[in-house]
Amino acid sequence: MDYIIMEKLKELRKSKKITQEQLAEKLDISRSKVSSWETNKRDMSITDAIKLANIYEVSLDNLFEINKITEEEYLKISDKFLKSKNITLKEKIKIIESLRDSLKKNNMDEFYENYKMTQNATK
């Protein structure tokens, strides 16, 4: 797990106002195991990840930040798309704004749909 995920695990636990001990009890594991996840000293099993996602009422994607796109990736996509000669500037602006808006809403499904439009337009 990386730093962002470690922080996410702590943030979710604290948002539920539970201690590591209380979380460990809910998961039927030791407190040290919870601590080791939050300090990146131990990987989590898929079984524990599913239980944890259920406790926190989030999807596994959300728990592990799977669909997060970095600003750098967004800029690369935008740059490549803007250089395309197969689409008008007005259409480019509309699609780039759609990408940006879906990122602001953190709606990754919508973002990837908009991204597919950029791929089709640059062919």
Structural overview:
The chain is mainly α. The chain folds into two domains: 3-63, lambda repressor-like DNA-binding domains (434 Repressor (Amino-terminal Domain), Orthogonal Bundle), CATH 1.10.260; 71-121, no CATH class. Helix content is 70%, strand content 0%. The protein contains eight helices and no strands. The longest helix is centred in the last third of the chain and has 16 residues, at 89-104.
Characterize the main sheet: none
Query: What is the typical, i.e. mean, pLDDT?
Result: 79
List the quaternary state of the chains: single chain
The share of residues in helices is: 55-70%
Layout of secondary structure:
Layout: H1 3-15, H2 20-27, H3 31-38, H4 46-56, H5 60-63, H6 71-82, H7 89-104, H8 108-121
Helix pairs in contact: 2-3, 6-7, 7-8
Write a concise synopsis of the structure shown.
The chain is mostly helical.
Q: What distinguishing features does this structure have?
A:
434 Repressor (Amino-terminal Domain); mainly alpha; elongated
